[in-house]
Each structure stands twice: as C-alpha cells, then as structure tokens.
Amino acid sequence: MKNIRTTIDHELEKLDLRWRNLPVRKQIRYVLYLFAFYLLMGVGVLVKVFYDLGKGDKIDVSHIEVPAVIHNESSLKDSIRNPKTIDNGRERE
C-alpha cells in the first residue's frame, strides 16, 4: 500500500511541476478551455432536462402501496396484532 501511495505522490508531483513550468498565459488558456467545456456540458444537461419535461409524457402520481399488505394481509395482521406471539417486539417462547 505504501508503494502505491508513493507512486501516486511521485506522479502528482511531476504533474504539478509540469503545470508550474507552463507559461502563465498557457495556464490561463487551459483553465478557460476547461471552464468553457464545463459550462457547455451544464447547458447541455439543462437543455436535455427541459426537453424531457416539455415532451408532455403524463406521469402517473399515486400513493405507494406496501406489497406485503396487498398480497398477504392476513399473516401480517396475525404477527403484528396477536399479543400471544409478540411482546415488546420480541417473540414469546
């Protein structure tokens, strides 16, 4: 594990040194290009979201129903409501 950390640390130091050796104008240009790309991606995502919202697909909004209550209601009532089998959350023996 120590070897991986030292390798990563060494590579990051080399990248940092390369970045510092670049002229300031080139550093500014790279930062502006990356920011423009980031901004373009953000605008693209917003356009996609508004496009999907504007398509007019009707979304059915309803209450969430618990599947256990729907399929097996009688066994659920017995295990919860029967005081002979459960006492304070623990089963009696």
Report on this structure.
- With 93 residues, the protein is mostly helical.
- It has 4 helices and 2 strands.
- The chain has helices at 2-21, 24-54, 67-71, 73-81, and strands spanning 86-87, 90-91.
- The protein has a two-stranded antiparallel ribbon.
- A hairpin with a 2-residue loop joins strand 1 (86-87) and strand 2.
- The longest helix has 31 residues, at 24-54.
- The chain is flat, with a radius of gyration of 30 Å.
- The model has no long low-confidence stretch (mean pLDDT 80).
The whole-number mean of residue pLDDT values reads 80
Order of helices and strands: HHHHEE
Task: Give, in spatial order, the strands making up the sheet with the most strands.
Answer: 1-2
Note the main sheet.
2 strands, antiparallel
User: What is the 3D form?
Assistant: flat
End-to-end separation in angstroms reads 51 Å
Tally of strands: 2
Helix content: 55-70%
DSSP helix count?
4
Low-confidence stretches: none
Structural class: mainly alpha
Cα-based radius of gyration, to the nearest Å: 30 Å
Strand content: under 5%
